[in-house]
Amino acid sequence: MAKDKEKKLAEHLYIEKGLTAKEVSLKVGVTESTISAWVNKWGWKARREALATSAASRYNNLQEVVSSIAAERLSLSRELDTALRIGDEPTAATIRMKMAKLDDGAAKWNKVLTTAKTEAHVPLSTYMDVMDRIFNALRAHDEKLYLQTIQFQEHHLTEISSR
Questions:
Q1: How do the pLDDT tens digits run along the chain, 163 residues long?
Q2: What angle do CA 95, 99, 101 make, to 5 degrees?
Q3: Direct distance between the N- and C-terminal alpha carbons of the chain, in angstroms, rounded to an integer
Q4: What's the CA gap between 16 and 44, in Å, rounded?
Q5: Which 3 state secondary structure label does DSSP give 37?
Q6: Which of 34, 51, 57, 121 has its CB 3.0 to 4.6 Å from that of 30, i.e. a possible disulfide?
Q7: Other Cβ atoms within 10 Å of 123 Cβ, number
Q8: What is the pTM of this model?
Q9: φ, ψ at 80 (rounded to 5°)
């Protein structure tokens, strides 16, 4: 039983938090070779890579890039205000050039972000098909548990459909 808890924690740390086998072993209290064995046996590496490269992850990463550009642009805007206030036209011209480059970059990244948002969207028919497969697998695995989730299934699919 204790190994199950350790394995679940290790799985979470390795897949979702991106820790190395050595880092996970130190946090969980099992040997690094045990973590490596679990990674290989349960396919954790492939799952971590799939999570890291998912459309939603790419979208979130792109949002961070655009936010970073926006923050830099705001900073340059404040620097430009200061340069103009003190009458430093050469510095103001340099800052304007930097701002123009950032604006161009931001426009390009926003286009990529828009495309990524479209890719991250899962069509309702696909979502419902996947959920149907999951609940059919649950029914095959544990009929009683499946029957306990019927109300949740209906509520969840109604909520998703209304979005």
A1: 458 899 999 999 999 898 999 999 999 999 999 999 999 999 999 998 887 777 777 888 888 999 999 999 999 999 999 999 999 999 999 999 999 999 999 999 988 888 877 776 778 888 889 999 999 999 999 999 999 999 999 999 888 888 7
A2: 120
A3: 41
A4: 10
A5: helix
A6: 34
A7: 8
A8: 0.49
A9: -65, -45
Q: Scanning the structure block, which residue is given the tokens 């799985």?
A: 11
Task: Report how far residue 50's alpha carbon sits from residue 138's, in angstroms, rounded to the nearest whole number.
Answer: 23
Under 8 Å between Cβ of 124 and 132? no
Q: What secondary structure letter does DSSP report for 141?
A: H
Q: Which amino acid is at 2?
A: A
What is the rounded distance in angstroms from the CA atom of residue 16 to the CA atom of residue 52?
9
For residue 81 the two structure tokens come to: 């205000």
